[in-house]
Design brief:
CATH architecture of the largest domain: 3-Layer(aba) Sandwich
Bound molecules: S-adenosylmethionine
Protein name: Precorrin 6A synthase
Shape: globular
Largest sheet: 5 strands, parallel
Order of helices and strands: EHEHEHEHEHEHEEEHE
Helix content: 25-40%
Oligomer: single chain
Strand order of the largest sheet: 3-2-4-1-5
Keywords: Cobalamin biosynthesis, Methyltransferase, S-adenosyl-L-methionine, Transferase
GO molecular function: precorrin-6A synthase (deacetylating) activity
GO biological process, one term: methylation
Radius of gyration: 19 Å
CATH superfamily of the largest domain: Tetrapyrrole methylase, N-terminal domain
CATH topology of the largest domain: Cobalt-precorrin-4 Transmethylase, domain 1
Pathway: Cofactor biosynthesis; adenosylcobalamin biosynthesis
Length: 247
């Protein structure tokens, strides 16, 4: 009977970014939960399996693929996310009920505490199922972005804010560094007349990673064109960026 679940942060997609803690846990466990991405994003499922293959090095293990639906678009964003999480919770609950192993690992992209709903879902389910769980931190894409671009994410004595497009859109002026996740809307272009630098990366940490940096006004169009090209070629885009006031 299942006793413990580990929510394992796997970093931005390449095995080299696994922490030692995540690696030794993956070595020890025999069973893993993996969100099953279909279509264009199937590669994200494959990358998780690649990580398992590298760490397991030929040892056998089992995976349960979770057929999570894509979030439905709609006017009431918060409501839609709530419905989506409910559907995912049902699928996860059902999968956990049938597990015979005592422990299972759930591979989570990046860090499980950042823009990822599984931790909240798990709090709900674990209480109902009297299941204990642990969260293993992972390296997040924005940390790798900063390192690869050799840029400090923070400025002296100012905050660093993590945004999604919905929150960034409401900002009138950017006066301190901001990191933007999950932006499908080129929200950076709303700020192109402000004295900002952009550090932009796609598929960060992977073989296809690509970076652009410069004054936002100068390279905003170039990034927009590149986004279109990457989306067309690869079918999906994983991008993260930092906006920093020019000094
Ligand atoms: C659902 S959030 C999950 C974030 C994740 N928990 C983390 O710590 O990176 C997905 C968003 O994270 C960012 N992201 C995650 N991995 C990335 C990567 N390898 N390259 C670029 N952006 C990435 C993108 O903004 C993407 O839309």
């Amino acid at each position: 009977m299942l006793k413990k679940l580990y929510l394992i942060g796997i970093g931005p997609g390449d095995p080299k970014y696994l922490t030692l803690e995540a690696k030794s846990l993956i070595e020890k466990l025999n069973l893993f939960l993996i969100p099953e991405k279909k279509g264009k994003k199937e590669e994200l499922t494959k990358k998780r399996i690649e990580i398992l293959e590298v760490v397991k090095g030929g040892k056998t293990y089992q995976c349960i693929y979770l057929p999570f639906p894509e979030r439905k678009r709609g006017i009431n964003y918060r409501e839609k996310v709530k419905e989506w999480r409910k559907e995912k919770a049902e699928i996860l609950r059902e999968a956990l009920l049938h597990i015979q192993e005592e422990e299972v690992g759930f591979l989570i992209w990046g860090d499980p505490t950042l823009y990822d709903g599984h931790l909240d879902i798990l709090h709900e389910i674990a209480e109902e199922m009297k299941l204990s769980f642990e969260v293993i931190p992972g390296l997040s894409s924005f940390q790798v972005l900063g390192a690869k671009m050799k840029v400090s994410l923070t400025d002296l004595a100012t905050p660093l804010t993590l945004h999604t497009p919905r929150s960034l859109r409401n900002a009138k002026e950017i006066k301190h560094p901001v990191v933007v996740f999950l932006d499908n809307y080129e929200t950076f272009s709303l700020f192109k007349d402000q004295p900002l630098k952009i550090y932009w990366g796609a598929y960060v940490g992977g073989k296809e990673e690509i970076f652009k940096s410069g004054t936002l006004k100068d390279i905003s169009e170039e990034i927009k064109n590149l986004r279109k090209e990457l989306k067309k070629n690869k079918g999906y885009l994983m991008e993260i960026y930092l906006l920093k006031p020019e000094r």
